[in-house]
Amino acid sequence: xxxxxxxxxxxxxxxxxxxxxxxxxxxxxxxxxxxxxxxxxxxxxxxxxxxxxxxxxxxxxxxxxxxxxxxxxxxxxxxxxxxxxxxxxxxxxxxxxxxxxxxxxxxxxxxxxxxxxxxxxxxxxxxxxxxxxxxxxxxxxxxxxxxxxxxxxxxxxxxxxxxxxxxxxxxxxxxxxxxxxxxxxxxxxxxxxxxxxxxxxxxxxxxxxxxxxxxxxxxxxxxxxxxxxxxxxxxxxxxxxxxxxxxxxxxxxxxxxxxxxxxxxxxxxxxxxxxxxxxxxxxxxx
Length: 286
Description:
Elements: E1 5-9, H1 14-23, E2 29-33, H2 43-53, E3 57-60, H3 67-72, H4 74-94, E4 98-104, H5 127-142, E5 146-151, E6 154-155, H6 162-171, E7 176-179, E8 183-184, E9 187-188, H7 189-202, E10 206-209, E11 216-217, H8 218-228, E12 236-239, H9 260-263, H10 271-281
Parallel strand pairs: 1-2, 1-3, 3-4, 4-5, 5-10, 6-9, 7-12
Antiparallel strand pairs: 8-11
Helix pairs in contact: 1-7, 2-4, 4-5
């Protein structure tokens, strides 16, 4: 991407920061805003900030991603993930900018026997998924130049995610009980960011599923993490979702299939290879 003016919301998040780092390499002008600098639920401010920035592309990576937090406060989730997404997309439309909006596999109910394709009908079963589906609909309604990217089970450098949680428990010698009846696509933020940028360059409006290829259960993902990090002897006790009570009910089988982006030549490598790259960069690959 050369010589574009790109505005990123949620720029201090793991995906937003990676996108900014990649896009700043070159002649692009990258303008990043975190939650303290831009509240996406404030329409007047969002409209003014984006109008003043004169962007060619707006990437909305801002969201309430605490799935259980969304279940505890659905109104806040809808305000950020639904109304906020609509605000950013409408302001991008007023500025004649492409909107790239990040969504989730949890817009589906998880009842399908195969990975979901972009044209499958969403049917969220928890407040997080409902709020993200509301955001998708708002983006589509207000900005015809939209690219909606659904992804799943992100792991990233920095902070704490599933990979870090599993390894932390293994190091501490804690017993590992991991759900075996929840299926999706483990996805590396570095690969996702690369694919989003390539997709934005294509400027082909639509809905896209960008995930590392292949699916896994939570327990299979955890087993691979341990095996590749020198903890092959650490046992895992498989449990059912019902044995791991939490405020939010995740979809059981919400794996995604990359159909639309693949037709444009955009594919992400298998998740096993992506996990190895992640572990190697962390200095954890055995």
